[in-house]
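Subject: mismatched residue count in predicted assembly?

I count 838 residues in my input, but I want to confirm that the predicted structure covers every chain. Input:
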Amino acid sequence: MDKQIRMEEYAGYQYIEGGVCAAQGFTANGLNCGLNPDKAKNDLGMVYSERLCTAAAVYTTNKVKGAPVLVTKRHLGMSGGRAKAVIVNSKNANTCNADGVEIAEKISELAAQALEIRPEEVIIASTGVIGQPMSPEPFAAHMQELAAGLSREGHTAAAAAIMTTDTVRKEVAVEFQIAGRKCRLGGMAKGSGMIHPNMATTLNFITTDAAVSTEMLQTALSDIVEITYNCLSIDGDTSTNDMVSIMANGAAGNPEITMDGTEYQSFRQALYIVMAAMTKMLAADGEGATRLLECSCVGCPDRQTAVSIAKSVVQSSLVKCLLFGCDANWGRIMCAIGYTDVDFDIDKVDVDVASAAGTIEVCKGNAVILPFSEEKAAEVLAEDEIHININLHQGEEQAKAWGCDLTYDYVKINGDYRS
Amino acid sequence: MDKQIRMEEYAGYQYIEGGVCAAQGFTANGLNCGLNPDKAKNDLGMVYSERLCTAAAVYTTNKVKGAPVLVTKRHLGMSGGRAKAVIVNSKNANTCNADGVEIAEKISELAAQALEIRPEEVIIASTGVIGQPMSPEPFAAHMQELAAGLSREGHTAAAAAIMTTDTVRKEVAVEFQIAGRKCRLGGMAKGSGMIHPNMATTLNFITTDAAVSTEMLQTALSDIVEITYNCLSIDGDTSTNDMVSIMANGAAGNPEITMDGTEYQSFRQALYIVMAAMTKMLAADGEGATRLLECSCVGCPDRQTAVSIAKSVVQSSLVKCLLFGCDANWGRIMCAIGYTDVDFDIDKVDVDVASAAGTIEVCKGNAVILPFSEEKAAEVLAEDEIHININLHQGEEQAKAWGCDLTYDYVKINGDYRS
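Triage response: the counts match. Full output below for your records.
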């Protein structure tokens, strides 16, 4: 599958290059510090803003939390929701280690020293294998070099540093206006396996030059996570280390957004566009995936019902196998809709399956599967991006969820992950 | 993998042959009526008791319910919890069909006519592909032959008739005493794919010659389903047609059990033994499975906590891949324990992984993974039956859950199920 997703258009928002450095005043870098034995692959990344940023984050809901998650929470608490830098490594999650928190603090201090900032202004994150001892040595040995190499072009090196089983870098940025000021918001993400709703679901860093208060940053981030990353499922597993963070340095010069209103809504929309695009990229690059699945659920009494049903479909192993096998076994879709644990009348539901090759009506009420052409179904399912569209006809709310097919390669990748 | 599970021993209960005909007064039969184009494979089964039975059932929680589920509910309601026969087919679920209920009623009538009983004394079930038109013709053509061939030996033919992607027949029966009377309880099951907690999870028929009131049958069945079938996960999908039913004809001559007490507990234990063994058989024969996983969670504040944690582990795709790949990536087990949506202190938890080849201590408190020998881990994980043992040290309650590894063959079987 072509891992490049189709980017949706939104009036007033232009996609731009630059990832986490698209916003004014942010620099980044990435390098190999030796955690990854393949020296051609970056394993340590940094993002930096000389201007102090407001900052917010959403963390994994797993009870087993990676040490970096605990340390970032503490830092943002100590700094009152302010930050200047992100330090992040791959290949070792620094989770379930006896001295994990000490090590994460040590790495934060190393980054702070190199940048001449305070340790509590550092957001720290790690991804990789759980329960492997981690030494601060490789970090100490490379931190100066990492900081010295910070640049506006460094976003690709940083995005490469957070890749694990990802096959492509994930970066998105948009340019937009707030109160007549040109603003930018961009980010980078890693995903692939262990991605599941009901939590922050991925390692993800967002930067913006819009001025937004810590409170409104947190409000927007928590809200958008619900309808983007939390609507993504690769394999139903919820990681110990997942985190989404956002830093806003105000370099765009707009009056700081401190409450809901037109300006907040413009900012929130930018965040939605970037996070929805990255969510779709994560689904398309799911471990072993050959097909992207987008499930849209409309006509719902409330957003939670829409989210739950859409997620139930993209999470179904049998639907995922259906996609992989291009098998028009529609009963599996009906089945996954039916076991969603929310209240609705199944007899009013319409379902269709669509792709660039056309649309098949699966069901129009009464939970009865309609006759269809096997030939056309095969054509529709042969495309890279499949849409399952559900209309409950029971309200006005809607949501989307994203996933991918379940393939031999998923099993292969995860049968032997540590090697 | 050898699909034969190790049967646990229980004092006072002997395993016996006979499946659904182990109990006195039950006969059964199975044949090919043409739903399965492979004439060597049975697709229609019947179980019968001349004595009127008390009867109870647990049904799928899926909102999309197979027509036979709706019809059985109606029948048991009309008969006041009494039944004399089961009629069941494979290859077609009779679900999401416009005339499904009429057809299921028609098949019940055909069975009732052949047996000279009332239609509401018939428990009906179907399993197979969803949304395929079903004709009563093949049933009409073979019902007399099916009824005429009923015998005490017919349990194997009936058990064969309910197999779909199952590779082995599943039958278990025990002999035990109630109030000095020899009683028997046995059953047959089908499973393989689409098996998931939070519902009845499989097609399953149980018979006993103990005398038990409808109310106490329902109480026992609902209770035991919670800690057996509902603790089984193959792929996380919850079927539209799943049902567990029990019929008690009283032929053993014990005074009818109408309340809790010693006699009820003896009966409940027999039901537990048979249903737990069948649950384990279903896990061992999961689609594509090469390894059986039993997760035991003890030291819990309540049964629900124990059930939730044990299920979380057996459902984890990453743990399932770990088993397939024999990869000692213990972090995945910690991760799955951690994302269970119940309240407990993760820092008190002990975890070990055991098999016939030995035991590995994974964690003893503080959510820290202990050092271990890769060599020994490889030996332990190479066995057919793997046990993950969790102790919360936070109470006295416990539960088990069962699952299997995720393999290439699961993906293969489900990428092309309909053919």
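DSSP finds eleven helices and 14 strands in chain A. Marking this ticket as 'not a bug'.
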